[in-house]
């Protein structure tokens, strides 16, 4: 059931760093993106794959993690992602940004979840520094970085409380709680 | 397999208009959106549901269809969508647009595909006229309209030819062909 997969596909931020993800697995995930919808079928998105520790280390320092969790700046050594897919827009194909990157990011992460992996969509990226670190030509705009790995944390969805606070939080057992707005609040009666 | 579902989930534009889609089905699809990722977990998206012929008729005239197909302005009577989910951004929660609407649109359409339905993400919308037709308050920005129904057309993916033409096209048997860029073209070696 797609519902089970969507629920299982949470934002994971701690991984078994030693768990290898192959280049072939990343290519299979990009294939899912390739089969996904694109505005006017232009398909302006390109993908940089990384699954080697050395290349991963060039990406990791330029990603920002879980802004709401105080005193936690991101996964520690041993808990870092073992792969990345960086989503770029090829400005020679289109220079305005729709929501294609959201569509493909969801396809990729659902595919990763099915494979027993998990990940996190990271939009908070130090653009120009990452561009330099990977020597990404100017024609590509960096839209989103997907961090991937074998999750080593528990993430649970709960319904947002009456206080309206949507900040995710971690309990004393390191379980990550994600408050979601109730269904009736997000359906608009007109 | 998620791959099968993603491949089956094509942009459909002709439907069995008499095939009913219930309010409850639409709510189940929005539930999939609710469980999907949201930037900083803000969840600014709201949803308008429509599955009654009268309400559908207020939406349909303000959607634009399949720009590449000449001499075809959209589905005819009897082929129109039997439901819509309109995705809005609640500007009181966030007034900048990330890719949340792409993420949830993919979740919703994969859910619809699993239910034997299909649909189309329509970004080309006559915003202000649709706003008036449905009396949508100004605080909501219309991001995307998902047209839904029981597909009555065949849509096939093929690999883009060497001419680089990505325009979808219809053959004499009314089969809709969608050229996708080859995998090796969309993976960027850096």
What is the structure about, briefly put?
In chain A, 28% of the residues lie in helices and 22% in strands. Chain A is α+β, with helices and mostly antiparallel strands and 190 residues long.
Description:
Two copies of one chain form a homodimer. By secondary structure, the first copy, chain A, is of the alpha+beta class. The first copy, chain A, has six helices and seven strands; from the N terminus they run ααβαβαβαββββα. In chain A, helix 2 (23-34) packs across helix 4.
Which key phrases capture this entry?
globular; 190 residues; alpha+beta; homodimer
As a whole number of angstroms, the C-alpha radius of gyration of chain A is: 17 Å
- Strand tally of chain A is 7
Question: Overall pLDDT of chain A, averaged?
Answer: 96
Largest interface: A-B, 65 and 65 residues
Let me know the largest β-sheet of chain A.
Answer: 4 strands, antiparallel
Shape estimate of chain A: globular
The structure class of chain A reads alpha+beta
What kind of oligomer do you see?
Answer: homodimer
Assess the beta-strand content of chain A as a share of residues. 15-25%
The neighbouring-strand order within the major sheet of chain A is 1-2-4-3
Spatial gap, N to C terminus of chain A: 31 Å
Q: What are the segments of chain A in which pLDDT stays under 50 over at least 5 consecutive residues?
A: none
Number of helices of chain A: 6
How would you summarize the topology of this molecule?
Two copies of one chain form a homodimer.
Chain A: H1 2-8, H2 23-34, E1 45-50, H3 53-59, E2 83-90, H4 100-114, E3 118-122, H5 127-134, E4 140-149, E5 155-159, E6 169-170, E7 176-180, H6 183-186
Parallel strand pairs in A: 5-7
Antiparallel strand pairs in A: 1-2, 2-4, 3-4, 6-7
Helix pairs in contact in A: 2-4
């Amino acid at each position: 059931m797609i519902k089970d997969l969507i629920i299982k596909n949470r934002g994971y931020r701690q991984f078994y760093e030693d768990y290898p993800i192959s280049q072939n697995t990343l290519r299979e995930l990009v294939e899912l993106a390739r089969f996904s919808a694109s505005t006017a079928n232009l398909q302006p998105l390109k993908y940089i794959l990384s699954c080697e520790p050395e290349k991963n280390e060039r990406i990791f320092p330029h990603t920002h993690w879980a802004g709401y969790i105080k005193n936690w700046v991101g996964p520690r050594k041993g808990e870092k992602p073992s792969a990345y897919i960086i989503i770029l827009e090829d400005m020679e194909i289109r220079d305005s940004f729709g929501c294609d990157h959201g569509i493909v990011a969801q396809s990729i992460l659902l595919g990763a979840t099915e494979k027993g992996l998990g990940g996190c969509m990271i939009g908070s990226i130090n653009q120009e520094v990452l561009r330099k670190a990977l020597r990404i030509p100017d024609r590509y705009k960096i839209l989103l970085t997907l961090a991937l790995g074998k999750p080593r944390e528990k993430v649970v969805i709960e319904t947002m409380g009456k206080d309206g606070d949507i900040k995710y939080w971690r309990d004393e057992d390191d379980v990550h709680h994600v408050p979601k707005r109730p269904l009736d609040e997000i359906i608009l009666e007109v």
